[in-house]
From TrEMBL:
<feature type="binding site">
    <location>
        <position position="73"/>
    </location>
    <ligand>
        <name>Ca(2+) 1</name>
    </ligand>
</feature>
<feature type="site" description="Transition state stabilizer">
    <location>
        <position position="59"/>
    </location>
</feature>
<feature type="binding site">
    <location>
        <position position="67"/>
    </location>
    <ligand>
        <name>Ca(2+) 1</name>
    </ligand>
</feature>
<keyword id="KW-0408">Iron</keyword>
<keyword id="KW-0575">Peroxidase</keyword>
<keyword id="KW-1015">Disulfide bond</keyword>
<dbReference type="GO" id="GO:0004601">
    <property type="term" value="F:peroxidase activity"/>
</dbReference>
<feature type="signal peptide">
    <location>
        <begin position="1"/>
        <end position="22"/>
    </location>
</feature>
<feature type="binding site">
    <location>
        <position position="69"/>
    </location>
    <ligand>
        <name>Ca(2+) 1</name>
    </ligand>
</feature>
<feature type="binding site">
    <location>
        <position position="64"/>
    </location>
    <ligand>
        <name>Ca(2+) 1</name>
    </ligand>
</feature>
<protein>
    <recommendedName>
        <fullName>peroxidase</fullName>
        <ecNumber>1.11.1.7</ecNumber>
    </recommendedName>
</protein>
<dbReference type="GO" id="GO:0006950">
    <property type="term" value="P:response to stress"/>
</dbReference>
<feature type="binding site">
    <location>
        <position position="85"/>
    </location>
    <ligand>
        <name>Ca(2+) 1</name>
    </ligand>
</feature>
<keyword id="KW-0349">Heme</keyword>
<feature type="binding site">
    <location>
        <position position="159"/>
    </location>
    <ligand>
        <name>substrate</name>
    </ligand>
</feature>
<keyword id="KW-0732">Signal</keyword>
<dbReference type="InterPro" id="IPR010255">
    <property type="entry name" value="Haem_peroxidase_sf"/>
</dbReference>
Amino acid sequence: MATLKFLCFLILQLFLVANCEGVEVGFYNETCPNVEIILKETTKHYISIAPTLAAPLLRMHFHDCFVRGCDGSVLLNSTKGNKTEKDEIPNQSLRGFQVIDATKSALEKECPGIVSCSDILALTARDAVSMINGPTWPVPLGRRDGIVLILLEASKNLPTPFDNFTTLKTTFGALGLNVKDLVVLSALLTNTQTKDYVLSQLYLHGSTFFKDFGESMVKMRQIGVLTGKAGEIRKHRAFRN
Ligand code: HEM
């Protein structure tokens, strides 16, 4: 009896670990099995032409996660009378929306209404960075797209270059990220030339940076995800359904 109870406990724990984020590896296995292949092909097409797009795509994912969680809200275009976070100052220099658009339309052809824009952004950031020989990290799927937009949230929630370390610690801490996450994730915040140099040096010297970066990305991509019946699966990257 005790053994049976222990087994039940163990199974329950495994179940909780597998579902603790509400997202899972293989989420689209039945509904859109080629999602990762299609996304990789499209991303590769763009990154092979313009490798410098990898950095802004990673930044886009970070800006998405820090405002209402990783819900794809950064992707929404402003409409008449409704300004979205995409047009707020910290987001005005974001680039790479065409990559998300291309993947979204390829996936809508393959399996309409199934794959969320927030999942597409999380996967694209990961694949683009790994395509330029950067770190990689697992991305379980099943995020849904946000429908709540509050003007000026990006300006309020995203860190600015004028924030001191204490403010940055508070901003990251409020989202469940610690000082190590802050340091590691911000390490790519240099100009492109230095970034390439830093990445190659880290690679050559077997630093634990790639591992640390991947671990912090795993924490970041979990922030405030919408699952189940929350939010929606957007038909178009730029507009709510
Ligand atoms: C710690 C607080 C942070 C601040 C204050 C900050 C601020 C900035 C600023 C001002 C830029 C230049 C934008 C421009 O070209 O106009 C930038 C670029 C960038 N940021 Fe951050 N950032 C922070 C954290 C992060 C994190 C956590 C990530 C990734 C997970 C990240 C990824 C990047 C990347 C990849 C670029 C280069 C983008 C490009 O080349 O277009 N940043 N950041």
